[in-house]
Amino acid sequence: QVQLKESGPGLVQPSQTLSLTCTVSGFSLTSNSVHWVRQPPGKGLEWMGGIWGDGSTDYNSALKSRLSISRDTSKSQVFLKMNSLQTDDTAIYFCTRPGYPGWFDYWGQGVMVTVSS
Amino acid sequence: DIVMTQSPSSLAVSAGETVTINCKSSQSLLYSGNQKNYLAWYQQKPGQSPKLLIYWASTRQSGVPDRFIGSGSGTDFTLTISSVQAEDLAIYYCQQYYDTPYTFGAGTKLELK
């Protein structure tokens, strides 16, 4: 069955770079896209960006200058890197797989990332 | 970017009531090529990931009870929950997938009266 699981550090210092991994199973990264969505504590959902089956990427323009999404198809992993973190980047970060063409039907459990010194 | 505006932000209900949540987009989500509205609804309970309820504005995801009904077209959409049950207490979000960046509404919190 389709599964996604996020992993990464729970605490990142301000100005540092966040690196998260989404490990997927039950589907192929070459024929499906994986996206990242984040949710600050007590707030709503923000689409960050995604990597499509052909390897191309799409980013939220508000984050584009700081964000990079890549993948390793051999390991069934998708990576998120975001630099210059600030306290308002504190959030739960979810990876999610959309059904065509863009509703999100499978989600990881999410990983809480706190930006603090 | 397409802005999604949800109302109300919170709603207090009693079990058995019917509730309506509204979602308005800043531009039409109706694609003329297939006459489909690129709008989804999600339910999120505390400590959980969002759960897809509705896509194409009115198609229920497999396993979603038929008391959840999505309607609307163009820029105005509605999620109706008939005969609300205690397990329906959650935050509900609409999302457009007409164009990237995909955007969500701010959410509607359904609470017990």
Task: Indicate the structural class of chain A.
Answer: mainly beta
Derived from helix and strand composition plus strand pairing, the structural class of chain B reads mainly beta
Q: Give the terminus-to-terminus CA distance of chain B.
A: 36 Å
The biggest beta sheet of chain A is recorded as:
7 strands, mixed
Low-confidence stretches of chain B: none
| Rg of chain A, alpha carbons | 13 Å
Q: SSE string of chain A, helix = H, strand = E?
A: EEEEEEEEEEE
The SSE string of chain B, one letter per element, is: EEEEEEEEEEEEE
Mean pLDDT of chain B: 96
Write structural notes for this entry:
The complex is a heterodimer of chains A (117) and B (113). The mean pLDDT of chain A is 96. Chain A contains no helices and eleven strands. In chain A, 0% of the residues lie in helices and 52% in strands. Chain B is mainly beta. Chain B is built from no helices and 13 strands. Chain B has strands at residues 4-7, 10-13, 19-25, 30-31, 36-37, 39-44, 51-55, 59-60, 68-73, 76-81, 91-96, 103-104, 108-112. In chain B, the strands form three sheets. In chain B, strands 2, 6, 7, 8, 11, 12 and 13 form a seven-stranded mixed sheet that branches. In chain B, strands 1-3-10-9 form a four-stranded antiparallel sheet, with no helix packed on it. In chain B, strands 4-5 form a two-stranded antiparallel ribbon. Chain B is globular and about 40 Å long. The N and C termini of chain B lie far apart (36 Å). The A-B interface holds A 35, 44-47, 58-62, 94, 96, 98-99, 101-105, 107-110 and B 1, 38, 40, 42, 49-52, 55, 61, 93, 95, 97-98, 100-107.
Break the fold down into its secondary structure elements and pairings.
The complex is a heterodimer of chains A (117) and B (113).
Chain A: E1 3-7, E2 11-12, E3 18-25, E4 34-39, E5 46-51, E6 57-59, E7 67-72, E8 77-82, E9 91-99, E10 103-107, E11 111-115
Parallel strand pairs in A: 2-11
Antiparallel strand pairs in A: 1-3, 3-8, 4-5, 4-9, 5-6, 7-8, 9-10, 9-11
Chain B: E1 4-7, E2 10-13, E3 19-25, E4 30-31, E5 36-37, E6 39-44, E7 51-55, E8 59-60, E9 68-73, E10 76-81, E11 91-96, E12 103-104, E13 108-112
Parallel strand pairs in B: 2-13
Antiparallel strand pairs in B: 1-3, 3-10, 4-5, 6-7, 6-11, 7-8, 9-10, 11-12, 11-13
